[in-house]
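To assess whether the prediction recovers the assembly geometry, we first specified each molecular entity separately, as shown.
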Amino acid sequence: MSIRWRKRAGIALALLAGAAIPYVAPPVYVNLASEILIFGLLAMSIDLLLGYTGLVPLGHAAIFGVAAYVVAYLNARMGLSHTVAIPAGILGALIVSGVFGLLAVRTAGLYFMLITLAEGMLVWGLAYRWTSVTGSENGIGGITRPEFLILPWQFYYAVLVLFAVCAWMLHRIAHSPFGLTLRGIRDNEARMPMLGYNVTLHKFLAFLISGGFAGIAGAAYALYNRFVSPATVEFARSAEGVLMVILGGSGTLIGALLGSGLILLTRNVISLYTDRWLIVMGTLFVLVILFMPDGLLRGLERGVHRLRVAVSHLRFLGSLLRPIRSPTTAKEPAGEVPVPTRHETP
Amino acid sequence: MQGRADVAVLVLDQVSRDFGGLRAVDRVSLQVARGERRAIIGPNGAGKTTLFNLITGELAVTSGRVFLFGQDVTALPTQRRAALGLGRTYQITRIFPTFTVRENVLLAAMGLQPIKFALHRPLLSNGPIWRRTDEVLERVGLTHRAETPARALSHGEQRQLELAIALAGDPRLLLLDEPGAGLSPVERQLLYALIQSLPRTLTVILIEHDMDLALGLADRVTCLHYGRVIAEDTPDCISKNEMVQQIYLGSG
Ligand SMILES: Nc1ncnc2c1ncn2[C@@H]1O[C@H](COP(=O)(O)OP(=O)(O)OP(=O)(O)O)[C@@H](O)[C@H]1O
Ligand SMILES: [Mg+2]
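The predicted structure of the complete assembly is given in tokenized form:
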């Protein structure tokens, strides 16, 4: 019970901190915060496959990108309203992940990675070659935002709400009966059929759901960036999404946001100070992986726990020292030397 | 066997399976009646586990046909056979190591229920799946370990969980592949008492190395050697069968 309330308090605090950002940070950083949330959502969609189902998708930026391209094309090229373009973008991502999923989910492990990689390349190739639609490397610019989302802080709050709602939905899914079947596939795929599970079907549904959320992130990205190009769908983006999950802690969902924050912050902040920011970023990643092999979220949790333990040990030591130093000044009777009590660690 | 396919829970018709040049199961024909306790014995490598894999569909037959509950299932995938009421345990424990004991059984108990596709709500702790899970945990004696991660269980407890997972889906035909593998004699006795206590509506086919255990439990015994059925009889007659005696004395 107390754990549940502590969690709720944590979520409320995080939301409050998130809501405070526009008050304390300059617009550039408010925009960066929007970007972190958008890619955090993409990474969370990856985590549903990676952390829960045990599949590593290497083409998710392509699904994300399809949504972004559809929104860009319908909005900027055809002048359609957002109420049409955004749902169409998400639908586009769902259709693409349906097709990609059909091809990919019959495999597992390395083969799954290779197939999703190839699928991602395919979309990237299309983005380059299908010039009449995608504008090739010129991309599609001139995407508009709804009037009430033009300023950085306005857009940021919309993304914050979107992220929170999607995170809540993904959390529900991960802890639903269906989510349990995904974890079952991750844990022991071979045992599943004998229990009555059509493993391929469950993987396919997971792929579809994951693709849907990647699509939501992609549609948001189109409005955020107001420009879409092949760089949006390239392999590096897909790999970065996976990296975000691993850095943040796979199988935690919200760790993906920490991963996204770490990557985008280091890239955007450190690159202000040095051209060698890639080296700094690489070093940082290695350090995280070395010292927090199960990711930032669990690593930080452990850190906080250790801190608590250390504090209680110090207190214990302090309580040992006190009676030795104090008898001369203290007026307590000799028999009442306080007995050191061990503080229980939570 | 056509005539008896309707009463027999399991019918194997000339079932074979090759691995490259090796014929692991060789033209096995077999019938198991409803409620029967059947033991399958035979030395290492006789093809017992392979035979189970052919019944469940985890391996495809090279030739021959498999009937479950009167239905030709030779072409059905494993999960469809499970849906007909087939369950099994494995010689080498196959549990879900990061799950708690309860989650292991919950996952198994919902495998045949539509709720396995529910996305929006957690499993209700007063719902039928949860109740079934409690029941099964009680039966195998793991109630006190329900919240323990499965990988933290002792080997003996993992074997109990293995059985619980197979029972959770409420099968009509249960295949047990050396359920006592790796257990101490005491643990094995307890496990066999448990198997003995399973309701008679459940048909059980049991692979067991230990002749005494197998003969103590079974109504009928099938002896496999080099993939072939060399004898099938009541426990009394099997223990007197010369070929069986030869194999068991000869090989160990
Ligand atoms: N997947 C496989 N690929 C190749 N050969 C296999 C395979 N599975 C089993 N075999 C071979 O088939 C034969 C029968 O194996 P099986 O596991 O069915 O024997 P078993 O009777 O269960 O033996 P044990 O008592 O040791 O469990 C053995 O020679 C084995 O090496
Ligand atoms: Mg075997």
